[in-house]
Amino acid sequence: MKFSWHDLPKPFTALAPLDGVTDVVFRQIITEIGKPDVLFTEFTPVDGFVSSGKERVEQNFKFTSEQQPVIAQIWGIKPENFYTTAKAVKEMGFAGVDINMGCPVQVIIKGGACSALIKNPSLAAEIIQATKEGADGLPVSIKTRIGFGNEQIDEWIGFLLAQNLSALTVHLRTVKELSKVSAHWEYMPRITALRDEIAPETILSGNGDIITHEEINEKYELYHCDGFMVGRGIFANPWMFSREESMKERSVAERVGLYKKHIQLYSQTWGEDKHFANLKKFGKTYISNFPDASNLREKLMEAKNIQDLLDTLNTYKI
Asked: In this predicted model, what pLDDT tens digit does every residue of 171-215 receive, in sequence order?
C-alpha cells in the first residue's frame, strides 16, 4: 500500500511495538474493537531475519489487510542486515519500516543495539542509510528516547532529525530511567521546536504514560506534536482507541468474551505451542476492573494449555 505519514489525521494514534504482545493476533483484536491510526509489529531482529532461523523470526511480520497501515519495526547492529530486511519488508507490503533505537533491555544494550545506538551515532547513521536504501522509497521512521543516562535532546534528537526521516517517535524518558519515573512531557515543546527548525517535514509523535484517549486530545492542545503512541496503556484499557467509547464501562461478559476471542484466534493462528505463557499474561488485560477478577486470573494462571484457559472462562459464572 502507498502510505504517507502526512496523510494521517492530527493528532493521530499509534499502538507501540511491544515484544511478546503486538503480534498479528493482538493487533487484530485491537483493530476490531477500536483501531488506532497506525499499528506496529513486535520489534524484530534483522540478524535473525537473515539467519537460518528466518522462518521463526518472520512470524513477527505476519499481518492482515485490515490492520493497514502497519509498520514493521526492526532492530540490530549490522547495516547490511537492515538493508536486506528493509527490502523484504517492502516486498511484504508493509506501510513503512521503523528502527528501534530506544529499547532499554540490558542484554540488547550490551550487544550495541537499540538504545545503545544513542552512544554510537556514526553506526546509527549507517543503519538509517542502509534501511532507506533497502526500503527503496518506503517511509523510514525511528522510535527512540530523550537520552541515555541524561537528557540529550539537542545532541541526539537533533542528530536524528538531521537524518531526513519520515517520522520520529520519542519516548519521553531516558534509557536509565526505564519506566520508573513519569514521562517528561515538559520536554515535548522543545523537541517540537527543534523539529520545526531542523526537519519540518518529519512527523513527530510522543510516547509515555498515556492511558486514555481523552489524554491524547489534552496533550495535543498542550504540546502540539503530530501524534501519540500508546504502549503499556493498552493493558489498562484495550478499548482506548475506540474514541467515543474509550471510557465506557465494560461488562464482565464483554471482558471475558474478548479474552476468549483472543485465545481462539491465537489458537487458529499459532496452534498450541507458540508462547503459551504469553497468552496467559493477557489475562491481566481483559480480566480486570470487576470484583472477582483477581480470583479468576489466579485460576487462569493454573492453566496448562489453551483448552484449560477456555474451559476456565466457559465455566465462569458471569
From this structure: 999 999 998 899 999 999 999 999 999 999 999 999 999 988 889
C-alpha cell at 121: 551515532
Whether 120 shows a pLDDT value over 70: the answer reads yes
For the chain, what percent of residues have pLDDT higher than 90?
86
Q: How far apart are CA 138 and CA 43, in angstroms?
A: 18
Q: What is residue 12's three-state secondary structure? A: strand
- Residue scoring higher pLDDT (271 or 259): 259
- The candidate with the shortest Cα–Cα distance to 175, out of 200, 157, 148, 207, is 148
Q: Return d(Cα 278, Cα 274) in angstroms, integer.
A: 9
Give per-residue burial for 206-224: e unless 16+ CB within 10 Å, then b: bbbbbeebebbeebbeebe
Coil, helix or strand for 150?
Answer: coil
Rounded-to-integer distance, Cα 146 and Cα 125, Å? 17
For 86, list phi and psi in degrees, rounded to 5: -60, -40
Asked about 114 being catalytic, the answer comes back as no
Catalytic choice (103, 175, 240, 303): 103
